[in-house]
Amino acid sequence: MSYLRGWFSLDTSATRVEPNDSHPNQSLSVPEIHEEYEDDGSDTAGEDDAPPAFPAINSAQRAATSPSSSSDSSRGLSMPTILTDSALMPPPPAPGLATRRPGVPPPQSSSSLLAPMATTQPPKRPSRRDKVALAPGFGPLDWGNLKSSGQDLRGVDTLMRIPPSMLKLHNKKEDAWTAINGKVYNITPYLPYHPGGEKELMRVAGRDGTKLFSLTHAWVNADFMLDACLVGFLVSEPSS
Fold this sequence. Notes:
GO molecular function: cytochrome-b5 reductase activity, acting on NAD(P)H; heme binding; metal ion binding
InterPro entries: Cyt_B5-like_heme/steroid-bd (IPR001199), Cyt_B5-like_heme/steroid_sf (IPR036400), Cyt_B5_heme-BS (IPR018506), Cytochrome_b5/Flavoprotein_Rdt (IPR051872)
Oligomer: single chain
Organism: Suillus luteus UH-Slu-Lm8-n1
Number of helices: 9
Helix content: 10-25%
Mean pLDDT: 74
Radius of gyration: 52 Å
Low-confidence stretches: none
Shape: elongated
Structural class: alpha/beta
CATH class of the domain at 140-234: Alpha Beta
Family: Belongs to the cytochrome b5 family.
Protein name: Cytochrome b5 heme-binding domain-containing protein
Order of helices and strands: HEEHHHHEHEEEHEHHE
């Protein structure tokens, strides 16, 4: 019974129970019972849970702002700056800029932000290839009808391998060949249908006209335009 009384006793000073007669070598340790902790408001450890001031007290952002009140200053809050109408307006133009006239260079004493004009002459238009007036019945639709008519526009029985020496022989108006992108065409039937005129098309007769064709009208599909006039393919000169 002395053991049970020592266990349930509220006396915190009793931490050990004397052994009884039946167990002379037995000693028991009784856990100490502490009183419940009561917060009286004197503990300051809870202050670490408060959020830090943002921006920091000694930061450049806080130094640049002007708190509206002492309460806002303690909490790190500041009212946004409201711009006036004069601050929202664009800056005034540079002296002399409002009196500038198009095409007239500013005087030397003017402090304009724009670079002075090098010339007052309008820019020249880029040179372009002029088209010629085609004879009636020789328009693009007429050429399309001629290709689909089944008429022989090649002038050869079969496709050939044509070296530059052979291509050079066909440089006359009634027998004109040219090579474009590795393919050789008989351009004699197409001469009156050429929008640039026969003279311009004869510049490539008897030679490779790929470069001149690309510089003049690279957007034109030569294979589609002259497919009915194909006579062969351009090859290198045979080695002797």
